[in-house]
Amino acid sequence: MTGPIVVGVDGSATANRAAEEARNLAVALGVPLRVISAFDTDNTEVLGSGSDTWIVSDADTTVSIAKNVAHALEAPGLTVTYGAVRGKPAEAIIAEAERVDARMIVVGNRGMQGLTRILGSVANTVAHSAPCDVYIVKTVGI
Fold this sequence. Notes:
The protein is α/β, with parallel strands linked by helices and 142 residues long. 41% of the residues lie in helices and 28% in strands.
């Protein structure tokens, strides 16, 4: 595993905290950073006004989230890429890590306490199924 560090984001403060730590690790290790966001539905809406028509989909919104986070993480000497991956968050992160031969996945610990810990969380699923190392960032309770 020699590829980038992969981090999943959803626009939340906890995901952004995990993304910041992923950036710090990528800079320290001298590897690229891949920021992704997952979308599980394929809702598409066609909007029109006069002769203009726009097609808006969940994928567009998801790419926008990943793009905004990626731009906020830019640092000298760091290559940051972004994208949207279809699927549930944990599945999408794992699939992208496999696709890019990721060196590491970084996730936050949201959902790893209380009832959701028993029912499952993104971090828990990723930790048990990842094709590479997983770094879980303490993002809850900070």
